[in-house]
Specification:
4-stranded antiparallel β-sheet, 10 strands, about 25% strand, binds adenosine-5'-triphosphate, ABC_transp_ATP-bind
Length: about 260
């Protein structure tokens, strides 16, 4: 079956040391990754290992130096480097910092309505649609006319999830999307994302450096190793672990510190 999203033979490097420099920092080398329709796939790795870069390439925000990004079997970008509007709507993202991801000038309504404006719905229908999306993420629609930045961090992240879901996407990149939230809100938002996936059939790429968040949430798991994602069958299982995974496991604090 054709995967929803496939990346093959991806190479990507960033220029280092100013505009005229020829030095390039290789970030991805021969990277490949596959996400099926409705799947939740985790992408784990330490900071600086190239996870967000892979996410940006998946959204079509930048082209890879080499390799293919295919969405439903078709190249994500056309020959002129443009992402087709349908694919742009079908792949959405939620990032770590909801305050950086929204304008301080916009109301909660305007944040969620933004991806729906092209549909030219009459205002009352648009407000009803936004209210429905807010309810779906557990927000009271009465908050609609409040400035988005007057919401709490957890509420604003829910609003960003509502905005991502507004165009009925097939795939959402969750790039450290719960990492800035307190533990209780993290658990609530993960449960919400899990429910929304069951209800809508949306797929997730769940990017994180926090192994704890993956358990019970992601069905398959990739780990960044030597500039490419490598699938790990069971990141919590016994047996020898790749060093990068052992380091992530060691970083998990015990629920109750052992004496001595
Ligand atoms: N636009 C850019 N220009 C130059 N270097 C970049 C750029 N974006 C990322 N990098 C570098 O590429 C490497 C990979 O960065 P990336 O953000 O993809 O890693 P990451 O695994 O997502 O890290 P984190 O978990 O800290 O977000 C890092 O060394 C980073 O400094």
């Amino acid at each position: 079956m054709t995967p929803l999203l496939e990346m093959r033979g991806i190479h990507h490097a960033y220029r280092q040391g100013g505009l005229l420099s020829r030095r390039r920092l290789p970030v991805l080398e021969d990277a490949a990754l596959r996400i099926g329709a409705g799947e939740c796939v985790a992408l784990l790795g330490p900071t600086g290992s190239g996870k967000s870069t892979l996410g940006r390439l998946m959204l079509g925000l930048e082209p890879p130096d080499a390799g293919a990004v295919l969405f439903e079997g078709q190249p994500l970008r056309d020959a002129r480097g443009r992402v087709a509007p349908a694919a742009r709507r079908a792949i959405q993202a939620v990032f770590q910092d909801p305050f950086a991801a929204t304008s301080p000038r916009l109301s909660a309504f305007a944040v969620v309505a933004e991806p729906l404006l092209a549909g030219r719905l009459p205002r009352p229908a648009l407000r009803e649609r936004v209210a429905g999306l807010m309810r779906a993420v557990g927000l009271d629609p009465a908050l609609m006319d409040r400035l988005a930045h007057r919401l709490s961090g957890g509420q604003l992240q829910r609003l960003c999830i509502a905005r991502a879901l507004a165009p009925a996407p097939r795939l959402v990149l969750l790039d450290e999307a719960v990492n800035s939230l307190d533990l209780e809100t993290q658990a609530q938002v993960l449960a919400l994302l899990h429910r929304l996936r069951r209800e809508t059939g949306v797929a997730y790429l769940f990017v994180t450096h926090d192994l704890r968040l993956v358990r019970g949430f992601a069905g398959r798991c990739y780990l960044m190793q030597e500039r490419r994602p490598v699938e790990v069958p069971d990141p919590f299982g016994p047996g020898p672990l790749p060093p990068a995974l052992a380091a992530l496991r060691a970083a998990i604090l015990p629920a109750r510190p052992r004496p001595g």
